[in-house]
Amino acid sequence: MSDTKPTQNTHKYFTTTLPYVNGAPHLGHAFELVRADAMARFKRLEGFEVFFNTGTDEHGQKIYKKAKSEGVSPEEFVKEQSQLFRDLLETLNISSDAFVRTTDESHKHAAQEFWQRCANNGDIYKKAYIGLYCVGCEMFVNESDLNKAGECPDHTGQKPEEIEEENYFFRFSKYADQLLELYERHPDFVVPDKRFNEIKRFVADGLEDFSISRVAEKMPWGVPVPGDESQVMYVWFDALSNYISTLGWPEDTDLFRDFWADGAPVQFCGKDNLRQQSAMWQAMLLSAGISPSRQIVIHGHIQSDGQKMSKSVGNVIDPSEIISEYGADFLRYYLLRHLHPFDDPELTAKSLKEAYNGNLANGLGNLVSRIMNMAVSYEVEVALDHEAETTVEVEDMETLIEHMNNYRFDKALNYIWAEVAHLDAFIAQKEPYKQVKSDDEEEVAAAKEVVAYLVIRLYDISAMLTPFMPETAERIQEIVAVHEKPEPLFERKE
Q1: First and final CA of the chain: distance in angstroms?
Q2: Which CATH superfamily is domain 11-308 in?
Q3: What is the pLDDT of residues 43-67, one digit of tens each?
Q4: Which residues are designated catalytic?
Q5: What is the CATH number of domain 347-482?
């Protein structure tokens, strides 16, 4: 068992962004969920107390329009859509500790309290405004943000609407210096570096106050502004506070202290959320007198046919299609090992099949069969502590910790698969299947020792796989425990 234990704070907090429920879950959602889940599971394996949050973002103009177009109330629409994301969590074996919906009464109460604290600090004011509003982003945008066609780069095919109304604004401009000081104190505040450099340039160039409300008469689907029900909160202002409302803030001070104030909160999000998560939200926290996040981990956009996968483009891939063909653990494995954690990775049907056959069916699955068939045939039984929290060796754990602390899920899995390759090579070198047939009792005993080592090391591999492929890890451990010749873990796809 590993003796690697946390040496500082024993609590860790991880959260995804909340998927917007105007459409069904897609592969980008699965990508973010699996990354956060692998990290949460790994930190539990290390011995930390972990709080892992996810949920659904359910207010705003896109939701309101979509519900109207389908002839249902917004309440009915978001309830049905939110369940699709709950189902995805279950299918992907996501180990979240909370599922917050922004329509929950507890969340709405927290959002209004958060607003009031910013207002009490003098950071919210009201003014008439004319601006371009991207419905896709649920944000006001500047002309400089648009492409040559006058469209938001993240939502091509739909030009922003010009909106003229009186809204509440947040004094974002007030917090530029404090944000830059925050970035200076934490040189790893945003991962990877290229995204951190991007947000530092954005803040250093000067910040503009941004609108945080909409007129309720025009867009009623939102959290009412405290003291002014003629306005509803801008969806981003409402939704961002989920990261603390899920901890019972402001009432549950113990949970909030342990996992937010002292828990080094880490937020996972896509690169189109960079400004909102690493600048806007941090300024809002500073205004409300709440400690900032500890780290923002940015992933790229999965590409399909050379384009960002998105509902507006119409090239999304339903994760359930991959799961039905290859299984949930394979999708977890593929997203974590074969998609770069920070760049814009390309996914193809060919690469899926090659990874499945080459690394699972012919790789890990074949290794499990070879080792356990020998163990059963040669009557080699190994005493293992199946009740232990982890059997990961210290050396293995230290290597995995290094990769995981850098969010290099791909390198962590490469390390595990290097161990798979090592065992294959060890079998080829020692040839226990030949040695066991010897008339020499010492050679037979040596062959059995080799197989015993292989079984122990296979169990180690299963333990290392737990954060990444939990069902597969459990199946391998069961195969070792029952000591029977196994059925194939992964059937080869033709």
Answers
A1: 40
A2: HUPs (3.40.50.620)
A3: 999 999 999 999 999 999 889 999 9
A4: 26, 29, 134, 137, 152, 155, 308, 311
A5: 1.10.730.10
